[in-house]
Amino acid sequence: MTKRFNELEPEGSQLLLAQTEIRDLMVTVTAMREQLELMTLDKETSIQEAVSSINDEVRQLKATAVALREELEILQIDKEESIQYTERTFRDENNQLQEAVAALRTQLEELHANK
Predict the structure, then answer these.
(1) DSSP string covering 8-44
(2) Please, which pLDDT band fits residue 113 given cuts at 50, 70 and 90?
(3) How far apart (Å, rounded) are the C-alpha atoms in residues 69 and 63?
(4) What pLDDT shows up at residue 9?
């Protein structure tokens, strides 16, 4: 009977070791699962922050594009107004010069006619 008890003891010891190893593995798996969840959460947070940052940058770029477009339109209108003003001034000056030439021609003709 002593032999049988000694023979059972290693099996009981092996069972205890196996149970301890299983428990340790379960603790390890749980810790690894928690670490994986934290890493996944960190990754998702990083992605959301990156997307938010990119969306902010896109909004800023769109606003800049709109402001530049408006400024360009204003500059174009100013340029057109300046051209129109210059053309009008040129026409007025040209008309005045033509009137002056006509008046001088008339005076010259009168001088020639009076001689």
Answers:
(1) HHHHHHHHHHHHHHHHHHHHHHHHHHHHHHHHHHHHH
(2) confident
(3) 10
(4) 57
Dihedral of alpha carbons 96, 102, 104, 110, sign:
negative
Two structure tokens written together for 45: 């947070």
The pTM is what? 0.55
Residues with Cβ within 8 Å of residue 64, at least 6 apart in sequence: none
CA distance 115 to 104: 17
User: Which residues in 82-106 are b (16+ Cβ under 10 Å) and which e?
Assistant: eeeeeeeeeeeeeeeeeeeeeeeee
Q: CA-to-CA distance for 13 and 20, rounded, in angstroms?
A: 10
- Please provide the size of the chain in residues: 115
Q: Is the pLDDT of residue 4 over 80?
A: no
Task: Measure the CA–CA gap between 73 and 93, rounded to whole angstroms.
Answer: 30
